[in-house]
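dude i think i finally got it to work??
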Amino acid sequence: MNHDEPKPTLLLVDDEPTNIQALGHLLKDDYRIRVANNGEKALALAAEGAPERPDLILLDIQMPGIDGYEVCRRLKEDPHTSDIAIIFVTALDDARDEEHGLNLGAVDYIARPFNPAIVRARVNTHVKLKRRTDLLEQYAMLDGLTGIHNRRYFDEHLDRETRRSQREGEPLSLIMLDIDHFKGFNDHYGHGAGDRCLQKVAETLARTLNRPGDTLCRYGGEEFVALLPGTPTSGALEVAERLRSAVEERALAHEHSSAGPVVTVSLGAATFDPAGEPGADMESLLARADAALYRAKNAGRNRYCGG
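look at this
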């Protein structure tokens, strides 16, 4: 294990305390251990957010209530937990039991009684594979030019935050922004300079949008989006002005813009309030933010409008 990194988290699920104790003693030096003595508790612990979320689950099959097979099936069907690696550790040693477990989505199957060295080696291998997969997934969610989150990440994050907003009854605000006359910038300064401009604007926006929980993404081309959970309309408009002002103050020369001598942005803000808009959804939030951005452009650019 790399001791510079936090220990990976294992969730041990078994209704027999002696089994949990044996696995915990075997693995506690290299991993952070959490335990559950039934399927219901296992599902609840697996659904927790980072850093409590397990990297790998060691799961017994024969348990009262929800058995291990059903726990595995539910975890793999839920998009929020489907990427958690699962190893069955069980007294069931029939090949048909192993085949069924692997077909449900488990990465491995260990029958009791087991060899401690083999268990350590298998857990280590699957944790390493899981971390490499997570790293590749993180790269897939980043924009290669600017280093901020990309459109794919935004689409998935917006879906999660909209559902959370509906569940908790809190507002969710969205800001869409566009670099003013970016085509003219590219035509005059060249596409290399255009790429550097995008990088500097993204850096400025990310530095300005510094509240934990707020997210900046590149939406496409010269367009960016900021997602602001728990933020009402008034707060979204304040953030929009801070973003607009920060880009203008960066003073990146743009001689071919009617909005001013430097690079500027136009912004559209909209808020989803589940308490006041029970029928609203993320599509309507996007549409209202886009319409507000369009109004800001028509009003002369280098400004924000609310939607």
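Residues 151-306 form a domain with the Alpha-Beta Plaits fold (CATH 3.30.70.270).
im so relieved honestly
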